[in-house]
């Protein structure tokens, strides 16, 4: 059973994104009031508050790990399409501002992910993906791979690195379409039309490659890649047509989905059984 350890209080507006650091000790959260908060998950304390009032709501956040350094870094995206990089050096408690980039997207950042193999960040926003190179000596997000990224009339909602970081998967909200792009040289590898409507989705590469898609109708659909065979449904009632969040956790053995009104659902990945409702 999952039990509540802390109630973290500090945000004054709806929380849009969360990310736990790789060591499990720190949480970063972003809200609709352009506020980012860093939390200590060992004590439940608020460590740092970062304000970006001129950039709009915080819509995505991801931790990044760089070679040849033990510094901790994260990147968050905003409603104006900007990406912000923060870094904590050594034993310092607070993160310091490194850079901001507003050139990659002309719409809200919908999702971010990080590839530790090639030290790349992938982002989606304004109907298209973008890929950025980062390093321990150059943490700016100005090193884009795509000069003219392909744009879609649909909302590019989620992104994940695939095939050991050599390609990216992009899912488009409600379009039923998923595209795979080879990164270098950039090219469209394939586009698949799924039976499921696409809200949000999560990619898991434990025991093969799987997609868990919130289908906006009756739950979560699990697809096996690369053939996109639908192998399982995690059913639950949906009261409003809103793209709920979904993620895998506990070494890929659990699937977690957002709820309609202040709760989350915890499923067993293998059996599809609902294990618990997590109430807020």
From TrEMBL:
InterPro entries: WD40/YVTN_repeat-like_dom_sf, WD40_repeat_dom_sf, WD40_rpt
SUPFAM superfamilies: WD40 repeat-like
Name of the protein this chain belongs to: WD40 repeat-like protein
WD repeat start-end pairs: 8-49
One cellular component term from this protein's GO annotations in UniProt: transferase complex
Keywords: Repeat, WD repeat
